[in-house]
């Protein structure tokens, strides 16, 4: 089985989700959209592969907004069309944070600034109670999505929809892939000032990540198993 993870910026990794896929025997390819040297001018051109070459597409997080066409439209518009075509042709897409927002927009939902940001470890409320662990899951987002027509909302917080499913595709607002190293990298590349501006202590984020280290790994694997079990039944 083959998965393609879309890394929208150089400070994102496949993290715990990539590890879990590889541990389960998947071949995982990675496609970087905006290299580090273009971070301040992210309007790059993007060549996307044929989605039919993959069993699973995983568009991941990004520091930009999924509605910022003026800044990243050069690659956002093609990616939205690519995601929509994959879903409409029966493909499986697992969108994470920005990826979930992009998928929502691609399929007729919307994305806008949320009522307030969520940064840190947050418990989610499951709508069906069947297969989403309440967490806590790591969050870092300012925007919130409205799911596309026909989607089932699986979880939420008081701030935003946290998970939804449409056919074989699944989107989560939180970051199941994130481990300590990812948070440290984000903080070291502009995130520390963002967190402090929102009243979040970076040291607390890292301490909580250390405390959640093993539980996060287990939760990420269980989330992946539950989703894959639904779309690739034995």
Automatic annotation (TrEMBL):
Keyword Signal: no
InterPro entries noted in UniProt: ChyE-like, Class_I_gatase-like, GATASE
Domain Glutamine amidotransferase: 9-179
Gene Ontology cellular component list: cytosol
GO molecular function: transaminase activity
Matches recorded under Pfam families: GATase
Record keywords: Aminotransferase, Transferase
PANTHER family reported for this sequence: GLUTAMINE AMIDOTRANSFERASE YLR126C-RELATED (PTHR42695)
Name of this chain's protein: Aminotransferase
Source species: Actinospica durhamensis
